[in-house]
Specification:
Blueprint: E1 2-3, E2 6-7, H1 10-14, E3 25-30, E4 40-45, E5 50-55, E6 61-67, E7 70-71, E8 102-105, E9 114-116, E10 119-121, E11 133-142, E12 145-157, E13 163-173, E14 178-187, E15 193-194, E16 198-203, E17 213-215, E18 218-223, E19 246-253, E20 259-271, E21 274-285, E22 291-298, E23 303-310, H2 317-323, E24 328-329, E25 334-345
Antiparallel strand pairs: 1-2, 3-4, 4-5, 5-6, 6-7, 8-16, 9-10, 11-12, 12-13, 13-14, 14-25, 15-24, 16-23, 17-20, 18-19, 19-22, 20-21, 21-25, 22-23
Amino acid sequence: MQLYGQTWRRRELEARIGRLEQIAGVRRMALTEGKEAGVEQIQVRTGAGLCYYVSPTRGLDISLAEFCGAPISWQSANGDVHPTYFDDKGLAWLRTATGGLLMTCGLTQAGAPGRDGDQELGLHGRAHHIPARQVAAEGRWQGDEYEMRVAGLVEESIIFGEHVRLAREIRSKLGSNTIEITDVVENLAFTPAPLMLLYHFNFGFPLLMDETVMRFPSHKVWPRDAWSPLEGYDRWAPPEPGHKERVYLHEEIDTVAGWASASVHNPRFPMGGERKPLTVRLSWATENLPRLVEWRMAGAGEHVLGIEPTNVTVLGRADARHQGTLVTLAPGEARTFAMRLDVEVG
């Protein structure tokens, strides 16, 4: 195992520490005040600079993520608000969305609010606000490698309607700056169920600076809104009061062995009193996530870049059904979604 610039065996490390949590590991904690009271978080530290917080209270999504003590993710003004405050109507999702590294949008609705048949659907569905159950948080040695794992189940159900279960597993290794996420979504009902998933990865300051550039695997990019300029979609900008969000749809995605990658690169990221080049690379398996959405919000206060692998067009379920692009799960059918985030210095 590589750590602190050299190779270690398990017993060599154990001889130098009282317990593993001195250098890395998994720790459970709870928030205690205001609208965040009762929110559980699981801290994962890899020992190589990467630290992130998984929230079982909020669908095993990932809140703050840091590298060498500086954030790479964006936090919304809402904070890690408890999901009991969630309102599923219209755009009210925005009042309790936490930001963080990952917000899961789905499982049966993602994108714009609207009516589909006899259901009134709010923005981005419920997954980000559903507490997980059967949650496991553990670290285990496998020979001289130490792996940290957080896993659990998130279910979306309604009587006389959908019953869909997401089984999520998040893994990192000691000495590595990688997060691996595997989701298996299964239809537990006896009728077909819509499957809409958008993985809302959010990046923020100080990863986002004036000199930050983004690279996407797409050959075709177009703005969702006609007024939105295409120029500058791959570069960042200073905060602008009154800035309007810009959404870009990426198509004709390049893949390697069934995976696509997008990256955010800051040539002068702060690390330990110095500034060094840093790249955050997001990769995903495209078999079940064939689309990519870029959410660019270079506003003052809301200063965030969203890179969003998805199987939807962001216009909502009724539009997807009308266009014939709505993905459905047959009774008992399951699909797997895989993602990986790497933090690379230099």
